[in-house]
Amino acid sequence: MNSVARDVEDNMKVSARDMKLIQLVQYGLPLCSHPYKEIGKHIDMDEQEVIDRLKKMQESGVIKRMGVVVRHRKLGYRANAMVVWNIPDDQVKETGKKISQFEFVTLCYRRPRQLPQWPYNLFSMIHGSDRDAVTENIHELARQCGLQDVNYEILFSKRCFKQRGAIYHPGDSSGRD
Known about the structure:
Layout: H1 3-11, H2 16-25, H3 35-41, H4 47-60, E1 79-85, H5 92-100, E2 105-110, E3 122-128, H6 131-144, E4 152-156
Antiparallel strand pairs: 1-3, 1-4, 2-3
């Protein structure tokens, strides 16, 4: 069962029109003065209904959040690194919350270890103007979270092949140009 279907079961009934709405907004909003009105044209909803349906799906947890995918390199952030941490299992939740509080941390999540080759279970993405700034932020994060003695690796990105938000309800996005 996919994550949208699971959320639907757990939180609210989602109509076929709601699924189409999700399908349309997950690819991004149109760049115009009334994006919700433009989206509504494709699914026979007026602007206010689109806004209300999205709000209801957010309140029920079907949609966790709506955000912007920022092309960080175009804004001058030339370096980023995934920091992988080997955190004791009973401390991952607390440590993840601490790391997530830092403004320069853009992602933080837990993943299972892949022993014996990969002991890391907490991942955080950090962006900065250059490698030195990113490294400095990582060391500051480790110091403030008491992680200086924790095994971690810094994996700097070398090339970006793709960057976009997640797609949860695949489908033809050509219904909106």
